[in-house]
Design goal:
This protein is α/β, with parallel strands linked by helices. The protein has a single domain, classed as Metallo-beta-lactamase, Chain A (4-Layer Sandwich), CATH 3.60.15.10. Helices cover 23% and strands 23% of the residues. It has 7 helices and 15 strands. Strands 1-2-3-6-8-9 form a 6-stranded mixed β-sheet, covered by helices on one side. The chain has a 6-stranded mixed β-sheet with strand order 10-11-12-13-14-15. A 3-stranded antiparallel β-sheet has the order 5-4-7. Helix 4 crosses helix 6 (244-255).
Length: 294
């Protein structure tokens, strides 16, 4: 039906970790047939006023993995996040695993390498990551075959990762009452986002979908799990047969009213480096504050 190696009979065990400071949900995804697992979109904590980085969120993930006796094989970034810093290298250092992201990270690195005026020492070839995923690429978590779908629009490097009957959509989709993410960052495109969402919704109706963010619209409790069927029927931006033209018009007008994410400047500098904080000429961790560039 989709052309992808979907196996709805494989049902990974999923533990979610909500970060209240950034409204991000990270996941530990366990292969049902072994102790192997993947970590999806882990968060590193930052206090911008104090210029201090800590790892409380990542430590909670690590504690869960150690308590359950799991073996991380992958640390997956669904995209280069603009609203939180990645804890991927911290978790890799503590527990191992390969860090993977979409192959269009090269586009993101080129665009933001210029915005942050990075020198030639900043490699724009994705070499900071262990694996660059292309459309349809497969990989394994224990005995579970997983695959990546290229779902651009929010950013050029956005990927949806499907593991058994669960898909991790990054910022391609929000919960049905949350709609969709913005498409106005450099390299974003509302039309591409619509097409990407439609491709995700070709997955089986009962496919579980896991969000990267939730903001509790209208005061409801935070949620992060839904299904393809629920999104097709009830998503306020694309559900119920809304056309591409309607979506692009809405998304373009809506995005023009949105402020930049609070942590976009530190997040992009760190995340395009696979979670490593850049350093100055003396080797001191240092973040830049480009003026009037976004």
């Amino acid at each position: 039906m989709t052309g992808y190696p979907v196996n709805m009979d494989v049902k990974p065990q999923i533990e979610a970790f909500f970060d209240e400071a950034t409204n991000t949900i990270s996941y530990v995804v366990k292969d049902p047939g072994s102790t192997a697992c993947a970590v999806v979109d882990p968060v590193m904590d930052i206090d911008m006023a104090a210029g201090r980085i800590t790892h409380d969120h990542a430590d909670a993930i690590i504690a869960h993995i150690e308590r359950e006796g799991l073996s991380p094989e992958w640390i997956i970034e669904t995209h280069v996040h603009a609203d939180h810093l990645s804890a991927a290298p911290y978790i890799q250092e503590k527990l191992g695993g390969k860090i993977g992201i979409g192959e269009n990270i090269l586009v993101v690195q080129d665009v933001f390498g210029k915005i942050f005026n990075e020198g030639t020492e900043f490699q724009r070839d994705g070499s900071q990551f262990d694996r660059l995923f292309g459309e349809g690429d497969t990989y394994s978590v224990g005995g579970m075959t997983c695959f990546a779908m290229h779902t651009p629009g929010h950013t050029p490097a956005c990927m949806t990762h499907v593991m058994g009957d669960a898909a991790f959509v990054g910022d391609t989709l929000f919960m049905p009452d949350g709609g969709s993410a913005r498409a106005d960052f450099p390299g974003g495109d509302a039309g591409e986002l619509y097409d990407s969402i439609r491709r995700v919704l070709t997955l089986p109706d009962e496919m579980r979908l896991f969000m990267c963010h939730d903001y509790g619209p209208n005061g409801r409790d935070i949620q992060w799990e839904t299904t393809v069927a629920e999104e097709k029927a009830h998503n306020i931006h694309v559900g119920g047969g809304k056309t591409k033209e309607e979506f692009v018009k809405f998304r373009t007008e809506r995005d023009a009213q949105l402020a930049m994410p609070r942590l976009i400047l530190p997040s992009l500098q760190v995340n395009m480096r696979a979670g490593e904080v850049p350093r100055d000429r003396d080797g001191i961790p240092m973040l830049k504050l480009p003026v009037n560039r976004l």
